[in-house]
Amino acid sequence: MNYTLQDLGFSPYFEDQIKGSLLKVGRVATATNEQYKIFSPDGVFHATILGKIRYLAEGVRDLPCVGDWVLYEQLGYDDHAIIHQILERKSLLSRKVPGNEQKEQIMASNVDTVFLVNALNSDFNLRRMERYLFLVYESGATPVFVLTKKDLCENVNDKISSVQSIAPGVAVVAVDSITGNGYEQILPLLSTGKTVSLLGSSGVGKSSMINRLFERDIQRIKEVRHQDDKGKHTTTHRELFVLGEGRIIIDTPGMRELQLWGTGDTMFDAFQDIEEFANHCQFTDCKHQTEPKCAVKQAIEDGKLDEDRLNSYRKLERELIRLERKEKFGTHRANKLQYKDMKKR
């Protein structure tokens, strides 16, 4: 299938980067073990990377990922190609790899909006949503909460309000993928030339959303476990889909755990309410623990701030500090520094 560059979300941001190049332009749709599928106006190609890219790569950010715009050379046979260059990205979704390894895992690039998909069942978890929200702000994309399985929830409006309380100014939409109820609010968010990525835990309904939006079975669906409402992995790899009219969706596998990767620079975006209260603390370096005239603790006493939210804020802050220390000093010293911090509290 052939796509125009506009169908794939090409914009002036990338056009400025290809001036004078004789290579062809395409977008990475899948990426597995340095084997890539590229969508382009000339067709769909199976590509590998130039040896120079691999040789100079210092980390995963230097290799192509789903969503990347690349310059490639079509080889003289069939549908094979070789990638010569990755164009500069305008956003990048990443997390720390699961487990103890100190490595970054890239999820998608050049995403404009991220649908943070959460189910309105017993797996509904505000603290997890805060983590997803931080990840999106760190990427440079715009977050939107999509609450699925609306038909299984009796207090939808209360759940929407609770999400709005942790994400001021962020759009929150509740949908039912079986009947299509609520999708009239999603379709306007899929605008021409924009790329949307779906993120969420296993079994929250991302694949059902894809199928509803395409009006056919694009992604395979599995049932959740009835005993605990936990989902099973359906999507096994990241993939870019073209919905038509220049609307692009990147689906990602469900995540059992979400370990953060980044800095504390975007904590304000994810916890605006706490940061705003903190501006009124007596001390500029207030830790909101035992300090006098702490505006954050006062907000909790006055019922203006949930204490669980402050605990979540502290937990994320500690994670990011530890991540930074492990990068700088290694795991052993980072653990010792964290232990010293705990003794001070």
UniProtKB/TrEMBL annotation:
GO terms for biological process, alphabetical: ribosomal small subunit biogenesis
Every copy of the EngC GTPase domain together lies at 109-256
Which GO molecular function annotations are given, in alphabetical order?
GTP binding; GTPase activity; metal ion binding; rRNA binding
What's the Enzyme Commission number for this chain? 3.6.1.-
Keyword annotations for this protein?
Answer: Cytoplasm, GTP-binding, Hydrolase, Metal-binding, Nucleotide-binding, Ribosome biogenesis, RNA-binding, rRNA-binding, Zinc
Q: How is the cofactor bound?
A: Binds 1 zinc ion per subunit.
Q: Which residues bind GTP?
A: T148, K149, K150, D151, G200, S201, S202, G203, V204, G205, K206, S207, S208
Concerning InterPro entries, the annotation shows: G_CP_dom, NA-bd_OB-fold, P-loop_NTPase, Ribosome_biogen_GTPase_RsgA, RsgA_GTPase_dom
Which parts of the sequence bind Zn(2+)?
C281, C286, H288, C294
Q: What class of enzyme is it?
A: hydrolase
Please provide, in alphabetical order, the Gene Ontology terms of the cellular component aspect for this entry.
cytoplasm
CP-type G domain sequence ranges: 100-258
Q: Where in the cell is it found?
A: Cytoplasm
The cofactor named in the record is: Zn(2+)
User: What is the purpose of this protein?
Assistant: One of several proteins that assist in the late maturation steps of the functional core of the 30S ribosomal subunit. Helps release RbfA from mature subunits. May play a role in the assembly of ribosomal proteins into the subunit. Circularly permuted GTPase that catalyzes slow GTP hydrolysis, GTPase activity is stimulated by the 30S ribosomal subunit.
Please describe the quaternary structure of this protein: Monomer. Associates with 30S ribosomal subunit, binds 16S rRNA.
Give the family per the record: Belongs to the TRAFAC class YlqF/YawG GTPase family. RsgA subfamily.
Per its record, how is this protein called by name?
Small ribosomal subunit biogenesis GTPase RsgA
- What would be the name of the gene that encodes this protein? rsgA
